[in-house]
Design a protein that fits this description.
The complex is a heterodimer of chains A (188) and B (327). Chain A is α+β, with helices and mostly antiparallel strands. Chain A has seven helices and five strands. Chain A folds into two domains: 30 residues; 136 residues, Alpha-Beta Plaits (2-Layer Sandwich). Helix content of chain A is 36%, strand content 10%. The mean pLDDT of chain B is 85. The chains are: A alpha+beta (188), B mainly alpha (327).
């Protein structure tokens, strides 16, 4: 009795073959999802997490907002960030005089060192894109880029100075809108 | 030169040309269908709609170096692809494309096709064995077990139609059927048609029964070690076998060249192409079966059903004969 029941079930299960054909037949007739890349590019790059990039300052968008505190380098699990601080500018003779006067009065001298980093070395080949650096940045000076199309020939091509990269983006950026749009990066 | 010889010569040339063309077109159709089923475009870069892509692939295959693995059997290794391709040419000869439009007039055409299609297994076995490769050997072993098993229900389902028509001559079988679909053998033998299609899939090693070349399990099975045109010949033979299988199905079950309005050969080609498209859709719809499942389908389902179908057919054919005699 059980064997007959099983046999009937097997035969009735054959209907699933038709269901399968219906699914593939439906997909066959529906429009394609593929975007033919060299001629068309996808528009939804907002969710893309590319390499790290520095955020420009409020006044000058091509100098980084970074204050060279080094929290990112400390937090990075892959040790792919090195922040090189700027040295204090050599004081002019008048400034030196003022400094000596202030010292004599017992005042603390004002630090004239610019806060933005001299170099922000970033090894993309080591980065795991975890975002810990962004979370630990006190001034929000880091973000993921939307650069989908980056490619290189050697490992060295993925070791950047992000300060330099930010400055270079000035040359590429159109005058009207400072933030590099997706269309512009797609050509790069 | 006798007329019969000229006819065979012309037929052979036509068959060789059409097998090459069919191979090219089928590669394109297969890839396009695969693409669209998965909502990709498929090949579209080379030529209009990617039509020249198979041609480019074929040129690449011809240009590739022919490799043979160490310690392989050189004679058997190179014999296998040739042996897989050559009998296929013969299979086309008795196929009637239209009324009187065939190369070889044999009154046992069906038998000839079934006999020579059996050689395909031998070539797979030789190729897998001579490769000196474990995957090749496993593929060959699978090919033999599968083809031997699936040949039986195939023969039995074909035999049922031969009983009804009373002939093994393909042209006679077609002539017994009528113009309209309800006059075709598929109406009297639907079960035989189903069994035939399933076992034909098994015979031609098409997905979902492509275990001899299962790429995810055996890399490429029996043709793992073949490069260039060695592989190309196996590939071409597979498509040619598909055409033969579909043509035989058309002749036996779908009324051959019969059809309303359009001329005979057009109907024949149309029916064969539709069947081929169906097989391509099967490939991209159904997942590959396990080997025990494969043999279970055959021995537990197709075989008993085919035998029962054959016995019922024989019974009714005999009954009809008595009825005719009584009248």
């Amino acid at each position: 009795m059980n064997a007959i029941k099983e046999a009937f079930k097997t035969v009735s299960d054959l209907w699933s073959l038709m269901v399968g054909l219906k699914v593939t037949g439906k997909y066959f007739l529906e429009p394609q999802r593929t975007v033919r890349y060299p001629w068309k590019a996808v528009a939804n790059l907002d969710t893309f997490k590319g390499h790290l990039e520095l955020v420009g300052g409020v006044k000058d968008i091509f100098t980084p907002r970074c204050i060279s505190c080094g929290m990112c380098a400390l937090a990075c699990p892959s040790n792919c960030i090195t922040v090189v601080k700027r040295k204090a500018p050599k004081p002019t003779p008048e400034e030196e005089k003022a400094l000596a006067e202030a010292k004599a009065k017992g005042e603390k001298p004002k630090d004239k060192t610019p806060k933005d980093p001299e170099r922000f070395l970033y090894d993309y080949s080591l980065c795991s894109l975890c975002g810990t650096c962004m979370e630990n940045c006190p001034v929000g000076a880091l973000r993921f880029s939307k650069n989908v199309y980056m490619a290189g020939y050697s490992r060295n091509d993925f070791q950047f100075d992000l300060v330099l990269k930010l400055r270079e983006s000035e040359a590429h950026a159109p005058k009207a809108e400072p933030a590099a749009p997706a269309a512009e990066t797609s050509e790069a | 030169m006798p007329a019969e010889l000229i006819r065979i010569l012309i037929g052979l040339v036509a068959v060789a040309v059409s097998v090459g063309l069919i191979g090219l077109v089928m590669v394109w159709v297969e890839r396009k269908v695969a693409g669209h089923v998965q909502r990709r475009p498929g090949p579209y870069e080379v030529g209009p709609y990617g039509l020249l892509q198979p041609l480019a692939d074929a040129l690449k295959l011809v240009g590739k170096q022919l490799f043979m693995p160490d310690n392989a059997d050189p004679i058997l290794f190179w014999l296998a692809p040739v042996l897989s391709f050559l009998p296929v040419l013969l299979l086309f000869l008795p196929l009637p494309l239209g009324d009187g439009l065939f190369t070889l007039d044999v009154n046992l055409g069906l038998l000839l096709i079934l006999a020579f299609s059996g050689l395909a297994v031998l070539s797979l076995l030789l190729g897998g064995w001579a490769s000196n490769n474990k995957y090749g050997l496993l593929g060959a072993a699978r090919a033999v077990a599968q083809s031997v098993a699936y040949e039986i229900p195939l023969l039995l389902s074909v035999l049922a139609v031969a009983f009804v028509s009373g002939s093994l001559d393909l042209a006679t079988v077609v002539k017994e059927q009528g113009t309209w679909p309800w006059n075709w053998n598929i109406m009297t033998q639907p079960l035989a048609f189903l069994i035939y299609i399933v076992s034909a899939l098994g015979e031609t090693n098409r997905a979902p029964f492509d275990l001899p070349e299962a790429e995810s399990e055996l890399t490429a099975g029996f043709h793992t070690e073949y490069s260039g045109m060695g592989f190309g010949l196996f590939f071409l033979a597979e498509y040619a076998n598909m055409v033969v299988v579909c043509s035989v199905a058309t002749v036996l079950f779908l009324g051959g060249w019969h059809g309303p309005v359009l001329p005979g050969p057009v109907w024949f080609v149309l029916k064969v192409s539709l069947l081929m498209l169906l097989l391509v859709f099967f490939r991209w719809t159904y997942p590959r079966v396990r080997f025990d499942q494969l043999l279970n389908i055959n021995w537990k389902w197709l075989m008993p059903l085919a035998v029962a179908n054959l016995m019922l057919t024989a019974f009714f054919v005999k009954l009809a004969q008595y009825a005719v005699v009584k009248m």
